[in-house]
Amino acid sequence: MNGKQKGDGVDRRQALECMRWAGAGLLWTLSGGVPGAKLIGRAEAAASGFSFVQISDSHIGFDKPANPNALGTLEEAIAKIGALPMKPAFMIHTGDITHLSKPQQFDDAEQRIARAKLETRYVPGEHDIIDENNGQAFLDRYGRGAKGKGWFSFDHGGAHFVGLNNVFDLKAGGMGNLGAEQLAWLADDLRARSASTPIVVFAHVPLWTIAPEWGWGTQDAAEALKLLARFGSITVLNGHIHQLMQKVEGHVTFHTARSTAFPQPAPGTTPSPGPKLVPAGELHGLLGITSVAVKRGHEPLAIADSSLAG
To answer: What span, in angstroms and rounded, lies between the C-alpha atoms of 36 and 59?
Structure first.
C-alpha cells in the first residue's frame, strides 16, 4: 500500500485509490440512504437504519498448506458476527462456499454459518458449480425462488438488493460473464425502482476490471452498470480475489471482500493467482476484519482494518 498509514486510518489519497487489506467479514449499514460498513467485533449500533454482513470465499474442503483448516477460520468469522452488539438483518455470502462442490462441504459450511442465526443469501463462485451436473447442487440448495441460473433480488429497509451470477459460463482463467438473459432480467428488475432507491449489487467475480490477465473482472459488467447509472447510490460487493480492493466512480462504490480461507497474491506480484502460502504465524494477520464507512458527497472513505490475530 502506498503512502503512510497512521493507526487504523488512511489518508485521502489511499482511500480513493484501489486498496488492499485483510477482511473476513463486513458489517454493512444503511442509514438515510447512505450505505457504509463497520468493523466486525467493534461495531457500534447504528442510530437508525439496518445492518447486514458480507462474508466470502470460505472454500470449505480446502486443506492445503495455505490454510489446512479453512473450516476453522470460517468458524472464527461466524463467532465474530455472533458477538456483534447490534444483530444484522441478514448475511450475504459472495461465493466459493466450497472448494469442490461436494455435498459434505456444503453441509459443513451451512452448519457453521447457521451459528450466526441470520437469514443468509448466497451467490455462487466458480468452485460451487463444479459438480457433475454443472452447478445443480448449488441451485438445489440456494436457488429456490431465483431466476435463470440463480439470480434474484429482494428489498429491505428501503434498499433494493440484487444477487447476480457471473460464474456459470466462466472459462479457466477467463473473465466473469453475466450474459444476455441475466442482463435482460436485470433491466426489467430495475425498471420500476425510483432513482433515489439505494441499490446493493453482489456477485462473486468483481464487476470492475482489476486484472484481466487473471480473469479478475466481468467482461459485460459495463452493460450492467449502464442499467444502474440512473440511481444515486450504488454499492457493488464481490469476492473471488481474496483481498480487498475498493474503487469509487461517481455514485458507485465497488468493494471486494477478503476470503475467510486463504490469501491470494496482489495482481502483478506473481505469474498467476492462487492460494498464497505465508508463515503459519502470519495467516491470521491476513485474515482480518475490515471497516469501510461510505459517506455522502465527496468526503474520503474512512477505512480501518483489524486482523484475526488482534
So the answer is: 26
Query: How many percent of the chain have pLDDT more than 70?
Result: 75
Q: Report how far residue 301's alpha carbon sits from residue 101's, in angstroms, rounded to the nearest whole number.
A: 37
Task: Please report, in angstroms and rounded to a whole number, the separation of the first and last CA atoms in the chain.
Answer: 20
Whole-model pTM: value is 0.85
Alpha carbon 71 to chain centroid distance? Answer: 18
C-alpha to C-alpha distance for 237 and 256, rounded to whole angstroms: 6
Spans in the chain with pLDDT lower than 50 = 1-24, 39, 41-48, 288-306
Per-residue HEC secondary structure of the chain comes to CCCCCECCECCHHHHHCCCCCCCCCEEEEEECCEEEEECCCCCCCCCCCEEEEEECCCCECCCCCCCCCHHHHHHHHHHHHHCCCCCCCEEEECCCCECCCCHHHHHHHHHHHHHHCCCEEECCCHHHCCCCCCCHHHHHHHCCCCECCCEEEEEECCEEEEECCCCCCCCCCCCECCCHHHHHHHHHHHHCCCCCCCEEEECCCCCCCCEHHHCECECCHHHHHHHHCCCCCEEEEECCCCCCCEEEECCEEEEECCCCCCCCCCCCCCCCCCCCCCCHHHHHHHCCEEEEECCCCCCCCEEEEECCCC
- Measured in degrees and rounded to the nearest 5, phi and psi for residue 161 equal -110, 135
The values of phi and psi at residue 131, to 5°, are -70, 170
Distance CA 197, CA 279 (A): 46
Q: Tens digit of pLDDT for each residue in 239-261?
A: 999 988 888 899 888 888 889 99
Residue 24 has a pLDDT of 43
